[in-house]
From TrEMBL:
Protein name in UniProt: lysozyme
GO molecular function: lysozyme activity
Organism: Cairina moschata
Catalytically driven reaction(s): Hydrolysis of (1->4)-beta-linkages between N-acetylmuramic acid and N-acetyl-D-glucosamine residues in a peptidoglycan and between N-acetyl-D-glucosamine residues in chitodextrins
Family note: Belongs to the glycosyl hydrolase 22 family.
Any GO BP: defense response to bacterium
Subcellular location: Secreted
Principal location listed in the UniProt entry: secreted
Ranges where the Glycosyl hydrolases family 22 (GH22) domain occurs: 184-202
Annotated EC: 3.2.1.17
Length: 235
């Protein structure tokens, strides 16, 4: 999966989640039109400032769910062929509709490079922890948050926070989720900064309690039982 972007003058932005996997007789993406200064289909650059012509609203949502080239969209936003329109200057509320799946959005968090994350996880003894490899964790992070430290998903009754998408119903307290267990004894906002030490401690608590990574839907869908060498290759 990847993202393509087209922009219509005076009519806002259109975000296209296109299925780019090769299938017989199926086009990978659809082109609409070519506004000034933008190609008809643009894979996201590493930083929005490379394209200052994009409105503030779009830049404010940069980095998630399709922050980097050649990476898959997290499983929480896994519907191909979805079109959405964001009106330029419509305000932050419009960003909540970034995906057609449940209220997935993000802010300008830090995108941790894959090999840097591999090093961090190795230094925190993730290799072999609860019987899983560092590759399992990197795969989990890619598909849950796309390496974005500020990733946030609002499910209505609860919310997922940070690079590990830790849920407010069971693991942290965001002041909005009734009856939270807050097993990690922490405010959820701590998972939205660029320091992931708190995230790591809580992720280990979750994994230890579950005796594995089954609490993360993206891991079960994209990583479990699969060859994961590519997630740590070159690191």
């Amino acid at each position: 999966m990847s993202c393509g972007l087209t922009a219509a003058p005076r009519s806002g932005l259109v975000l296209f989640l296109a299925d780019t996997r090769v299938t017989p007789g199926r086009k990978a993406a659809t082109q609409m039109f070519q506004p000034r200064g933008l190609p008809p289909r643009l894979l996201f650059p590493s930083h929005p400032r490379q394209h200052p012509e994009l409105p503030w609203l779009f830049q404010g949502c940069w980095g998630f769910p399709c922050a980097r080239q050649r990476q898959e969209i997290p499983s929480t936003c896994d519907t191909p062929g979805t079109w959405l329109k964001l009106q330029a200057g419509a305000g932050a509320g419009a960003a909540a509709g970034l995906c057609s799946c449940p209220h997935l959005m993000g802010t300008q968090g830090r995108i941790i490079p894959r090999c840097e994350l591999v090093k961090i996880l190795r230094n925190h003894s993730f290799e072999g922890f609860v019987g899983k490899t560092v590759a399992d964790w990197v795969c989990l992070v890619q598909h849950q948050s796309n390496y974005n430290t500020h990733a946030f998903r609002d499910e209505g009754k609860s919310r997922d926070y940070g690079i590990f998408q830790i849920n407010s119903k069971y693991w942290c307290d965001d002041g909005k989720t009734p009856g939270t267990s807050n097993t990690c004894h922490i405010n959820c906002s701590k998972f939205l900064d660029d320091n992931i030490e708190d995230d790591i401690r809580c992720a280990k608590i979750i994994a230890k309690e579950a005796r594995g990574l089954k609490r993360w839907v993206a891991w079960k869908k994209h990583c479990k039982g699969k060859k994961l060498d590519s997630y740590v290759k070159g690191c």
